[in-house]
Amino acid sequence: MDHYTPESFGLTNSVGFSINKARNVLITEMDAALKDLDITSQQMGILLSLRQDIATTPFELSKHLGIDTGLMTRMLDKLETKGLLERSRSIEDRRVVNLKLTKAGEDVAAQLPRIAPAVLNGRLRKFTKAEFEELRRLLNKFLED
């Protein structure tokens, strides 16, 4: 089913416009909340993914977070410079780079589960529990292939 036609399509009535605008608002608020930790919301995703053992290589992180490999490399460089993670070559396959949080990275990552929910809950404060669940369901449906 087509929801848009060339005649009915307008920038501000586009689902893509609304999703992008919501993303930008969320990133701005999350980045402000993370400022004292000297990380960004995108870097938060990397730290949490490593802490929760969701990904351990740059390729896995890129795939999981939906970030192209070039940007991922630059972000990992910044986190390594800040002393939050370290890279090491795989013994089995020298082409593979393994990532590990440093002690400082673990300390920062441990604070994130208190910061991120506060930002998200602030943005979701007008939603009922049912509306929140419906939003999650619809976003997941939108992301399905």
From TrEMBL:
Record InterPro entries: HTH_MarR-typ, WH-like_DNA-bd_sf, WH_DNA-bd_sf
Entry keyword Ribonucleoprotein: no
Keyword Transcription applies: yes
HTH marR-type domain location: 1-144
Keywords carried by this UniProt record: DNA-binding, Transcription, Transcription regulation
GO molecular function: DNA binding; DNA-binding transcription factor activity
One Pfam family, short name: MarR
Segment forming the signal sequence: none
Protein name from the UniProt record: Multiple antibiotic resistance protein MarR
Originating organism: Paraburkholderia sediminicola
Gene name in the database record: marR_2
